[in-house]
Amino acid sequence: MIKLCDARGKQSTTLFFVSVSWVALLIKFLIAGMTLGPLGTMHEMSAMDFGSAVTAVLAIWLGREWTEKRKPEATQ
User: Fold this and answer.
1) C-alpha to C-alpha distance for 22 and 33, rounded to whole angstroms
2) The model's pTM
3) Residues 6-38: pLDDT tens digits?
4) Nearest-CA neighbor of 57 among 3, 15, 1, 13?
5) For the chain, what is the largest distance between any 2 Cα atoms, rounded to a whole number of angstroms?
6) Domain count of the chain?
7) Tell me, what's the pLDDT at 70?
8) Residue 15 belongs to domain spanning
């Protein structure tokens, strides 16, 4: 699996899955309504559906980037 780096320079597994999801959504949007031979006609996908799906995927990634990931400090 490809490891992409986040804004802090650390490897991010989440970013890989966001990239794959983004590409899948883009392909689905581009082929919506097309007839693909034995697969039949692809279901329609409006710009509103595409925008909602992309927003949901990006919200997960941005939420992950926004939160600070640090270990709890030991109390003395």
Assistant:
1) 19
2) 0.64
3) 667 777 777 788 888 888 888 888 888 888 788
4) 15
5) 68
6) 1
7) 58
8) 4-34+41-65
